[in-house]
């Protein structure tokens, strides 16, 4: 099975520990590139999250976004340093006696004073297992989405390969006729200029023509590359780079076929082959 590198997955979970949403986006990339964005309170989980992603995905640019809202059981409890607050109030009253028009005390100003509010730390151990389970669920959905798109790409590749087989089949079938037409063309040239037909010279010209226009080797190599592409698709796994290389080789042979062409039919076949190859190569960039 082959996998596409383009996919999206979203998973969410909720419990006494709080609630979290995990979003995973995957796009094509030459290697594995991870972007992990976490709330400040959960930065300790980044290494574990990166390791989990590496276990499931080997290639592509992966963006992982995690949003977390503490619950009643695990949320940070806010406590007030009443002793410090009382001292601040006494200080405020002392200052007010020195002023002719003292302003009323602002409660929020006291709360903003350093050390007035104390926030208990999150129980990260209790949250970590839940967050990693949520990540596993998101990764499972992401891999499944990549596999579904990979299967669609595989069907597209196989259809284009069938089209390529049909084109080279046409060329193979036409080659004897092309040689025959060239022979008749040479005979007509001799006749037009009223030269005596030299059978030996005619055969020599036909041999030279056959050598210059012989594309059977290119057709055989195209056949071999098509068979290799099918084998790679059947094998599955991380095949994107190998498929990209095979597309380059197929394109090289299609160009040579066009360069040797002396017939409109073979020229058209070369163009059609390059179109089919390019359609595959564009999508191969998305294969893991």
Describe the 3D structure.
The structure is a single chain. The protein is α+β, with helices and mostly antiparallel strands. Among the domains are: 7-74 and 125-147, 2-Layer Sandwich (Ribosomal Protein S5, domain 2), CATH 3.30.230; 78-119, no CATH class. Helix content is 62%, strand content 15%. The protein contains eight helices and six strands. It has helices at residues 46-56, 82-98, 107-111, 124-192, 199-213, 216-235, 240-259, 264-284, and strands spanning 7-15, 18-27, 32-37, 60-70, 78-80, 117-119. A four-stranded mixed beta sheet has the order 1-2-4-3, covered by helices on one side. The longest helix has 69 residues, at 124-192. The termini are close together. The mean pLDDT is 84.
CATH topology heading of one domain: Ribosomal Protein S5, domain 2
End-to-end separation:
11 Å
Helix-strand string: EEEHEEHHEHHHHH
Outline the low-pLDDT stretches. Answer: none
Measured by DSSP, the beta-strand proportion falls in 5-15%
Q: Sheet bearing the most strands, described? A: 4 strands, mixed
What Rg do the Cα atoms give? Answer: 36 Å
What's the level 1 CATH class of one domain?
Answer: Alpha Beta
Count the beta strands: 6
Mean pLDDT: 84
User: Numbering strands along the chain, what is their spatial order in the largest sheet?
Assistant: 1-2-4-3
Structural class computed from helices and strand pairing? alpha+beta
Shape verdict: rod-shaped
Share in helix? 55-70%
In the CATH hierarchy, the architecture of one domain is: 2-Layer Sandwich
Number of distinct helices: 8
């Amino acid at each position: 099975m082959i996998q596409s590198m383009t996919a999206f997955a979203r998973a969410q979970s909720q419990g006494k520990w709080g609630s979290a949403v995990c979003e995973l986006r995957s796009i094509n990339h030459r290697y594995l590139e991870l972007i992990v964005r976490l709330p400040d309170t959960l930065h300790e989980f980044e290494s574990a999250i990166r390791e989990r992603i590496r276990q499931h995905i080997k290639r592509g640019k992966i963006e992982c976004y995690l949003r977390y809202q503490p619950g009643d059981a695990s949320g940070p409890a806010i406590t007030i340093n009443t002793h410090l607050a009382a001292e601040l109030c006494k200080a405020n009253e002392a200052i007010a006696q020195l002023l002719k028009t003292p302003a009323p005390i602002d409660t929020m100003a006291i709360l903003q004073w350093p050390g007035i509010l104390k926030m208990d730390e999150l129980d990260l151990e209790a949250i970590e297992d839940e967050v990693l389970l949520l990540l596993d669920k998101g990764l499972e959905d992401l891999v499944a989405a990549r596999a579904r798109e990979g299967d669609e790409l595989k069907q597209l590749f196989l259809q284009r390969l069938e089209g390529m087989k049909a084109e080279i089949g046409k060329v193979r079938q036409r080659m004897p006729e092309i040689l025959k037409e060239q022979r008749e063309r040479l005979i007509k040239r001799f006749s037009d200029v009223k030269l005596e037909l030299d059978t030996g010279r005619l055969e020599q010209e036909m041999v030279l023509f056959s050598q210059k226009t012989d594309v059977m080797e290119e057709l055989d190599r195209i056949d071999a590359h098509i068979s290799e592409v099918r084998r790679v698709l059947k094998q599955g796994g991380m095949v994107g780079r190998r498929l990209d290389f095979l597309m380059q080789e197929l394109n090289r042979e299609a160009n040579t076929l066009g360069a040797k062409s002396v017939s409109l039919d073979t020229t058209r076949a070369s163009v059609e082959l390059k179109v089919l190859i390019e359609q595959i190569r564009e999508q191969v960039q998305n294969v893991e």
